[in-house]
């Protein structure tokens, strides 16, 4: 679970509430809430297929509950597999795959064990990675669109409020409060975009990049194992995916 | 038919009408409508060839009435064809193509049956996909341009209204209503761009991506059938185009 | 001649004049015209070589008077040439080239007839296309820059007007008209960019894409003829450049 | 140490303080500080993993304390190594590597001495460079995000201030000061983004580019040494990384 | 010397001075000049290494004093060299290189005469071109950054001015002039960016493109000479770099 997302979201809203303080009642206007949240959500529906929009909450949850990839653990596992394959033959790997093994490793290793053509293994694993990147992009796209249309409907709401206020200026003392209400939708749109959807889209992009990197590490590892590389070479090939501080002690060259 | 586009469009306008409520008469100004819609449409005419602009309604309709691609069905069909080709020879496929077959599959399979050079088949099918992508882009471009020029003419209309109002400030009580009218064109431009044309352009981009993906799946399938791949390999190659949840039960490796 | 460009430009200005109506005198301020048009043009002179800036009118004219490419006609011509080359040998093509032949076809076919190395033909024709794309980009760049600097000088003019007005606020009744004049430059800049230069840049980009596509079609055709392809294959290769509705009846596969 | 970063940062703030002058007390508002700095930092926490955000100060420090790469020195060192390898054989290089040698040179040369396959050396060194580029990008990303969200929270703070002020307009003399406070957050956001985080991100990008260039120089040098190139050829190959004024006197061709 | 840059710069400032007219004293505020020019320059110092910032005047001068490349002359020279090489052998070229020869041609031809491996010649010349492109980009980057930070400090100055003015609103007659002064920094920033630095960056980009094109022409020419191409083929290969109107009379095919 990503505590930072939660702290970030809750902290930002706490700060905003503190800044508003005792003026809170003046900041709550149901009609303004409806036009910004409703308008942005309905417009995202025009922009994307229904299924995607209905899955928005899952995408948001993902930004909180994603597990980080343990690149170092994956690299060790693959070096271990390379050692086994070198010592006992590649078929021996079958017994080392169990339910705890990363499914992408299992798929790759099983294809290698089955004697699938190496070029086909590489092509299939790579296509799988591209396909995953694509699904990630679609998830992020919903947040991007909410971040794009929320401020737009904030502005539309403010324009509507201004036109109404300016058309009925008989009572000058009503101008201030009228304008305050008109500005609320701009505020709502800015908060929705900048405190929720855009940063969540950033976090999803970060997780996507990390997960794709983990898959590329596995792809390199499986290809190295398949071609019978020396475990030390496998380690060297996988170490480049790790930050220098995470690298194993074996590597010295 | 894409119910989401329709719900999105109708819902957004309903929301805006509710927000305006009884002030509706103050929001309708024929001159403002003409300058924003007319100005944006005429400017798009300067930007694009006439034929494209006249086809705008078709492009908009497409965002409502496009049929989603059934990637899983296409994959099954191609695996079925691969099984037939493997069992009865590639010429046997001719009898399995009928009017219900996707025309892109028919074209590809017919070329394979005719013994066309595989590289030429791939080149032609790929060029066809690129050409389709190009036509899609042109359709979307009209919506993009409407979404770009509508707010610009909204601003031009507001500037014209402000200059007129500011030049005749003898009656202070007319300032409010004058400014209200001036702001209307900005509102119209913002609504046209953000509630109609930009989200429709987003949806068209989504459909284009889906359709190109379906074509790439077919291209891969035809090439695999042509080269006499084992149906199980064909399935593996096509499965990467599907979300994991849609994949067939055969795949286990 | 591209009637749409003309209709778009004239129509937009007619609309703007109608919106201004009887207030026209208040919208004409020679000093504001000079700072926006002069400032933008002089700044484009800083941005680009003199020759380019002086050729601006030619670029604008091109957006009105360009002839659309007849892709279908080009394809037919090349298929016809392929038939001749197949039947009577490639040297026979020399007699079929006359002054009506597209000069890019003539160049390509003449090189083929002269027995120039196919790779060199492809390289030279492709370099020619890239060079044309480059010249197109330079023409469009002037319009892009006018569209970028006109609003900037509109804003600069408005800031100058505001500073003058705010420094001399002794007579409150002069504030309105002073601000009206200050806003005029912003209006001029917005109109110049959005009603003239940006849409003309869009149209030039469109024409460039079409012309480059025609050249790519010819390149493919000449290479196919040179390599002695069957005319039916040549037709298939060129058809991918055409919209499905434009394709010839021969193609059935 | 990069004196320019320090001079730039301190100088800019000195200038701003001079411009504010004796009005300083009116420019300090703790609540505004909290919403802009706090809001931006918490939102970056939503956008990025916790570890990255906590490392922000290190990234900022790096923009001040990075050592420039001595490309000329690296090139000379590699030419010297090429001379040794040519004269005494590549194994002789082992004695020339010591703790002062750039670790990237050591890694590369050691692999060459160990007889590692040249293609593998190139692949590993290149992957190392890509991995470094990636780590650099992640460091810069924090500054980019601070530069993006600080102005956003500046605007959110101003909107909150305006709504509070407009809702309580009973005392007209309080409007000015109220609006002054409301604008403070916009000012804070603009200063944080434009005087601190965006320029630091620019500087980090510059350093990253320089360091990657140094690594590419080393990669080219190691590969040239490994393939037994004549030292003069090695020098020619490495000179292209240097500005003409930095190049050695040997080069004459 | 590029007269257009000079005319553009001087002309734009003349226009602005005319628009300001007798109000000039109200437009000069030393504190505002310091915050915009000083703030932008110091921030560029944070963004870039010191040496680059101190070289800013050289970069600006370059936009005025650059000599255009004579592509046609370069092409003729290379065709002439090809004729000599064909007739008298490549070694004969040595006598045709003198101090007037473009140094990039000399370098290339000398390597060819020395019998350097053609692939190495191409690699070295190409790396030289990339390295030049890189140096050009760095020069342009300073202007880009000035163009980015000048308006930012214009806005910061205006915000500071507004806060000071709004905090001391006891004398309503001081509001106008106070706001006039506050707007001055925005004006300065807009003029610095749009009349000086952004167009100069555009011009530098243009010159860079032209110079890189000249180098690519030379690279192609040297490679063609080295491989012993027929002078007519060399001319054809180089003509693609010239506009059709500049091409020599030889070319007829």
Computed structural class of chain A: mainly alpha
Q: Mean pLDDT across all residues of chain A, rounded?
A: 90
**Oligomerization category of the chains in this entry:** homopentamer
* Strand fraction of chain A: under 5%
| Unreliable spans of chain A | none
Would you spell out the secondary-structure blueprint of this structure?
The structure is a homopentamer of 253-residue chains.
Chain A: H1 3-20, H2 30-47, H3 50-54, H4 56-65, H5 71-88, H6 103-113, H7 118-167, H8 175-226, H9 231-239
Q: Could you characterize the architecture of this molecule?
A:
The structure is a homopentamer of 253-residue chains. By secondary structure, the first copy, chain A, is mainly α. The first copy, chain A, has one domain (1-244). In chain A, 75% of the residues lie in helices and 0% in strands. The first copy, chain A, is elongated, with a radius of gyration of 26 Å. The two termini of chain A are 37 Å apart. The model of chain A has no long low-confidence stretch (mean pLDDT 90). Chains A and D meet through helix 1, helix 8 and helix 9 of A and helix 2, helix 6 and helix 7 of D.
């Amino acid at each position: 679970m990503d505590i930072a997302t939660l702290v970030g979201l809750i902290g930002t809203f706490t700060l905003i509430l503190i800044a508003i303080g005792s003026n809170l009642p003046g900041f709550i206007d149901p009609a303004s809430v409806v036009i910004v949240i409703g308008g942005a959500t309905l417009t995202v529906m025009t922009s994307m297929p229904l299924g995607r929009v209905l899955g928005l909450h899952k995408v948001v949850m993902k930004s909180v509950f994603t597990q980080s990839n343990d690149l170092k653990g994956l690299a060790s596992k693959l070096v271990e597999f390379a050692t086994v394959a070198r010592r006992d033959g590649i078929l021996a790997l079958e017994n080392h795959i169990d339910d705890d093994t990363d499914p992408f490793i299992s798929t790759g290793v099983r294809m290698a064990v089955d004697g699938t053509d190496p070029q086909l293994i590489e092509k299939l694993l790579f296509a799988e990675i591209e396909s995953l990147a694509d699904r990630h992009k679609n998830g992020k796209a919903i947040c991007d669109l909410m971040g794009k249309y929320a401020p737009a409907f904030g502005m539309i709401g403010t324009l509507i409020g201004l036109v109404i206020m300016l058309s009925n200026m008989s009572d000058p003392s009503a101008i201030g409060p009228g304008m305050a209400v008109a500005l609320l939708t701009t505020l709502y749109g800015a908060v929705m975009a900048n405190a929720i959807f855009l940063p969540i889209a950033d976090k999803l992009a970060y997780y996507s990049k990390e997960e794709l990197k983990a898959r590329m590490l596995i792809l390199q590892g499986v290809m190295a194992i398949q071609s019978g590389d020396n475990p030390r070479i496998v380690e060297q090939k996988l170490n480049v995916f790790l930050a220098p501080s995470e690298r194993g002690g074996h590597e010295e060259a």
